[in-house]
């Protein structure tokens, strides 16, 4: 962990904090090809045109229990950007209500997805990023629905925000319950903890949570492994974090899909039990 406070990451693609460019403690991802593919998809001949008449809206019930909210969303948009939602829409097209239900995320995360579909940005009208917790859940949603562009929008937002001061233990637990080993979100969390966060700030974050939350054992292991890889370079003045090292491709989204492998890595298992904690959204 870093020994001094550093500012949040700038909007640029890299944040200098170490010796060798691209020297992330985890293997990098060729984000250029992922970004190019996303741009082509946005401009493809089948991409919905917001200037064209949209004849159909879909009602979407998002979340569960008292936290469930109803959204109206363009059918053309949501079925174009997510095969998962395309399947859900197809399953209710003959029903009189024409309502889809998706309990496995929060209304805030789905709202960001909807904002992204319409503007290709998750920032609000004042150019402000959402809270980190919402972006974390947006990343998980992007993986679950098979839309790497959405997951990468969340990663870029988290990279720009820097995570400093907003990473409570309940977020650590959420990340490790809802992602698989090797997830770019885990990699970003670990790299920023060991390279950017002063040790006293990390210790304070572990003790200031309002509710008692168990720190995922795998997080401690990942921190130790990543820290050991930095030891040979301790005399170097700075390292670099590159946002491209944490972006995902379509192939990696398929590999990282977590819908059937959720659950217990924060406890006893390293890969999940297949059941999400109903309170873990």
TrEMBL record:
Annotated region (Disordered), positions in chain: 1-25, 252-281
Polar residues: compositionally biased ranges: 258-281
Source species, domain of life: Eukaryota
Protein name: Uncharacterized protein
Organism: Cudoniella acicularis
């Amino acid at each position: 962990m870093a020994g001094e406070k550093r500012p949040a990451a700038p909007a640029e693609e890299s944040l200098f904090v170490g010796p060798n460019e691209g020297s992330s403690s985890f293997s990098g991802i060729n984000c250029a090809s992922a970004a190019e593919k996303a741009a082509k998809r946005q401009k493809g001949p089948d991409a919905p045109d917001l200037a064209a008449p949209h004849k159909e809206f879909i009602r979407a019930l998002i979340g569960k229990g008292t936290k469930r909210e109803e959204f109206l969303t363009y059918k053309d948009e949501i079925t174009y950007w997510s095969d998962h939602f395309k399947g859900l829409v197809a399953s209710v097209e003959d029903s009189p209500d024409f309502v889809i239900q998706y309990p496995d995320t929060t209304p805030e995360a789905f709202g960001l997805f909807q904002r992204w579909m319409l503007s290709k940005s998750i920032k609000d009208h004042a150019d402000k990023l959402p809270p980190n917790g919402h972006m974390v859940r947006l990343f998980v949603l992007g993986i679950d629905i098979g839309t790497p562009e959405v997951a990468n929008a969340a990663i870029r937002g988290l990279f720009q925000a820097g995570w400093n001061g907003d990473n409570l233990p309940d977020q650590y637990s959420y990340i490790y319950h809802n992602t698989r080993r090797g997830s770019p979100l885990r990699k970003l969390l670990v790299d920023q903890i060991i390279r950017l966060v002063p040790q006293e700030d990390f210790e304070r974050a572990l003790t200031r949570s309002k509710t008692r939350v168990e720190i995922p054992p795998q997080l401690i292991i990942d921190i130790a492994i990543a820290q050991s890889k930095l030891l040979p370079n301790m005399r170097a003045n700075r390292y670099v974090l590159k946002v491209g090292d944490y972006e995902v491709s379509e192939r990696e989204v398929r590999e990282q899909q977590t819908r059937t492998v959720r659950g217990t890595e924060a406890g006893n298992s390293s890969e999940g039990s297949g059941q999400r904690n109903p309170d873990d959204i």
